[in-house]
Specification:
single chain, alpha/beta, Elongation Factor Tu (Ef-tu), domain 3, 7-stranded mixed sheet, 6-stranded antiparallel barrel, 5 helices
Length: 258
Amino acid sequence: MKKFILDLTVVENQRLNYQYVLLKLTHKDKLPLILPGQFAQIRVDGSPETFLRRPISINFVDTERNELWLLIQVVGPGTRRMAEMKIGETLNMIVPLGNSFSAPNSLDARIALIGGGVGVAPLLMFGEWLHRFGYTCNFMIGARSKVDLLQLDELSKYGEVYTTTEDGTYGEKGFITQHSLLNTPDFDCIYTCGPTPMMKAVARYAQENNIFCEASLENMMACGFGTCLCCVTETDKGNLCVCTEGPVFNVTNLKWQI
């Protein structure tokens, strides 16, 4: 797909909780085609400590409003600067990068989208895509506590939402891979994004039950074009760059210790 270097303008900065911010941005022209699972490389201006672009998943594209959404987890000076952006400021990005999630083979497929933390970001856009094309999906979202659960209202527009929290403050208590919905292997497809231990547990569950499963990896990236090699992951086809060959991989191709 053709890549674009764009200056997008902030139209809304919504603080979701102590650690997460939702940035909504627009462009003077129509936004390019972006597929679920793809990401952007963000240039962070006004942050002297931040020299390299930051990879951020595309959270959502609102075609009617010509808006692109970014779910920002504040973990360092770069993301802190993004979280502090004001309406009217511009954010430079390279987009769209990477591959996308695969469509299920059948409209009757039983689908689970399993996420945790900032891994919710690409699942919202994919869930909207599935809903738009007639699929039915279930979102399964895990977090440490109720305050850490993100975008549940948005997710519920496109499917049933099931949750777990480690402290039991919302939904079932425990990890998302311990949710009662998984007690009976009743899914045809699973798509996951989130912390690596969570994705490995999801991958193990899928392989043990012969379920198609794709994972969106969140490796550190510097360039987004496969040049710097800092995002390499081991696969059955050798070491591949997550930024160009991913970020979405079929879990059977990953050399995870699962």
